[in-house]
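Tip: read the tokens left to right.
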């Protein structure tokens, strides 16, 4: 098996991650046991993923209650989901809430956290963001903690500058373990890699699209963390395991087409619809307001476009 990424000793492994969707109960609360089982599927050969990132954007993490978010790590631990294959979403508008989720994750054995900046107040200074991440790290209070910063300015409206990332890395060393770049701009991922040294310096930059998989790895990225690998994990893993040449380019072209299809829909709703079809579980289409499930017209269009991908 091709293994282009050296695997770190003390933090999450590198490779293909799915930003896991969150199965919900009828009342909109998190179905923790179902989330654990779903993550186990993603980590299986059929799911194709090296790791999972629950309670992120695709997982509606900021829409779930604090109680649900704090309980989720215990459900994964009870199911035996390995700690080195999980990066838990812990970002919140309140640093205190982020600390609560972070502590719950670490206590359950999940020391890798994906952390949004506090996002309610817009245009904060880097000094304020530095203080927020400092308080999170100090509040969780574990030497085992590994924080992956989360840059998604189109949603948070709070970008993470290269200068801030370098400053945090210098201040906290290996505790600030990497960054997920969901900007959709590969030049931004490259800027983070160039400023930190990427995996050559044990700083893990994860672009957020399968279409960037090999471009990122060749530049020093750690893999990808993507919402659409809920559906395309095995396809992405196949591209990762293909030697350079025409076969790899064909695999990457198929991934780019798949990603283009999904870009025409709400990512979370589309991934939940595909999971519902795959498992014959209509309840998997439940989303937390203000999101809505795909309409009938959207479902029909998605099915037609996916059939054309085969």
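Filled-in amino acids:
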């Amino acid at each position: 098996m091709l293994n282009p990424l050296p695997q770190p000793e003390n933090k999450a492994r590198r490779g293909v991650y799915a930003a896991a969707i969150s199965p919900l109960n009828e009342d909109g609360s998190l179905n923790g046991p179902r989330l654990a089982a779903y993550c186990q599927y993603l980590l299986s050969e059929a799911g194709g993923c090296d790791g999972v990132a629950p309670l992120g954007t695709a997982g509606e993490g900021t829409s779930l209650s604090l109680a649900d978010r704090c309980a989720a790590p215990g459900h994964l631990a009870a199911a035996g989901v390995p700690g080195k294959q999980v990066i838990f979403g812990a970002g919140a508008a309140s640093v205190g809430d982020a600390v609560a989720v972070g502590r719950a994750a670490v206590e359950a054995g999940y020391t890798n956290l994906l952390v949004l900046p506090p996002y309610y107040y817009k245009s904060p200074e880097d000094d304020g963001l530095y203080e927020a991440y400092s308080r999170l790290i100090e509040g969780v209070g574990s030497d085992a903690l590994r924080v992956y910063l989360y840059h998604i300015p189109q949603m948070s409206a709070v970008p993470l500058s290269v200068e801030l990332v370098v400053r945090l890395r210098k201040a906290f060393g290996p505790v600030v373990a990497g960054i997920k770049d969901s900007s959709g701009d590969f030049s931004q991922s490259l800027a983070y890699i160039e400023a930190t040294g990427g995996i050559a310096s044990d700083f893990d930059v994860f672009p957020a699209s399968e279409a960037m998989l090999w471009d990122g790895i060749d530049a020093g990225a750690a893999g990808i963390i993507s919402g659409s690998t809920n559906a395309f994990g095995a396809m992405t893993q196949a591209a990762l395991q293909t030697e350079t040449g025409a076969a790899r380019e064909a695999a990457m072209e198929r991934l780019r087409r798949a990603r283009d299809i999904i870009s025409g829909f709400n990512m979370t709703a589309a991934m939940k619809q595909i999971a519902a079809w795959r498992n014959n579980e209509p309840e998997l289409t439940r989303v937390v307001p203000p999101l809505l499930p795909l309409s009938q017209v959207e479902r029909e269009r998605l099915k037609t476009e996916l059939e054309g991908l085969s």
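The mean pLDDT is 97. The beta strands are 15-18, 51-52, 88-89, 112-115, 146-151, 176-181, 204-207, 223-226.
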